[in-house]
Each structure stands twice: as structure tokens, then as C-alpha cells.
Write a structure and sequence with these properties.
This protein is mostly helical. Helices cover 74% and strands 0% of the residues. The chain is built from 4 helices and no strands. It has helices spanning 13-53, 57-94, 116-127, 134-167. The chain starts with 12 loop residues before the first helix and ends with a helix.
């Protein structure tokens, strides 16, 4: 994203506001994705600890790799969010200089102002889809099984302790 993407010259007020709104929506989607990544990062960090505590070094290494990938993606999105915020601020500062030069198109929104590549990326992020997640899904299933087994072990230990306290 560069200065050219935040230039509102040649737009009327309605077009400029719609263009800014598109960027605000993009920013919100990026922030929402960052929240999801933060949750996933916590989950994979806990899984790393769990696998280590169970002596599953291979699984712990895979979980740590996944956490590192998520952290890297989160950092990239953080930079993207900051860049979007700066663009939005620059565009908002230009709004007072935008005039009603042209009439809006009769059908409502002018399709030429919609960036199809940006729209596609927004839809992908909104659906939570990331390509190449096959291995992640397999690790996720294994970790969920390990977590479930751990919960069963904890509950069984609690039950045994309760029974021993009743008998003792």
C-alpha cells in the first residue's frame, strides 16, 4: 500500500467516503483476524507445553513450529493494520478538500471503485481460510486427542483422590 492508494483526488465526496469505508472494513477484518491468530497462538503454546510435559518431543516441536508460523503471520498483519490505519488517517485529512465535482452513478455504487483483489482477500480473511493447512489440521486433531486424554487423566485422578478420601 502506498501514497497513491490514499489519494482521493478526482473523487467526489460520496466516492471518497465509500473508498475510505472500504479501507475501514479492511482494517476491521485484519484486526479480527489478528484476534483469531492471538487465540490460536495461545492454544498452540499450551499444546507445546502439554506435549513437552507428556514427553512427546516430536509433537511439541510441531506445535512450536505452528506457534511460530502464527506469530509471524500475526506480526505481518500487525504491520498491515498499522499501514491501513495510516492510509485511512491520510484520506480523512483530505476529505475537506474533496468537492462534489461529479454526480454519483445512477445505479448507486460505482463498480469501478471496488478493488476485486482487495475484495477477494477480505472475503478469504473473513471466512478464516488459509491455504496449505492440511498438516496443521492433522496436528490439530492429534493435539485435541492429547488434550482430551489429559482431561480424562485429570478427572480420573480427581475421582481416585475423592474415593481414597471417602475410604481413608
Amino acid at each position: 500500500m502506498d501514497e497513491k492508494n490514499s489519494d482521493l483526488s478526482g473523487m467526489n465526496t460520496t466516492e471518497a467516503k465509500e473508498y475510505i469505508l472500504q479501507h475501514i472494513v479492511s482494517l476491521k477484518l485484519v484486526r479480527k483476524e489478528m484476534e483469531k491468530l492471538e487465540e490460536n497462538l495461545s492454544k498452540w503454546n499450551l499444546r507445546t507445553e502439554l506435549a513437552c510435559s507428556k514427553g512427546e518431543t516430536g509433537l511439541a516441536l510441531e506445535a512450536k513450529k505452528e506457534a511460530e508460523k502464527i506469530q509471524a503471520l500475526r506480526m505481518k498483519l500487525s504491520g498491515d493494520a498499522e499501514e491501513l490505519r495510516n492510509m485511512i488517517d491520510r484520506m480523512i485529512q483530505q476529505l475537506p478538500g474533496v468537492t462534489e465535482q461529479k454526480q454519483a452513478s445512477p445505479g448507486g455504487t460505482d463498480l469501478e471503485t471496488v478493488d476485486p483483489v482487495m475484495l477477494e482477500q477480505e472475503l478469504l480473511m473473513a471466512s478464516g481460510y488459509l491455504p496449505g493447512d492440511e498438516k496443521k489440521a492433522e496436528i490439530d486433531r492429534t493435539m485435541k486427542k492429547l488434550e482430551a486424554d489429559n482431561i480424562v487423566e485429570i478427572e480420573l485422578a480427581k475421582l481416585k483422590e475423592k474415593m481414597e478420601n471417602k475410604n481413608g
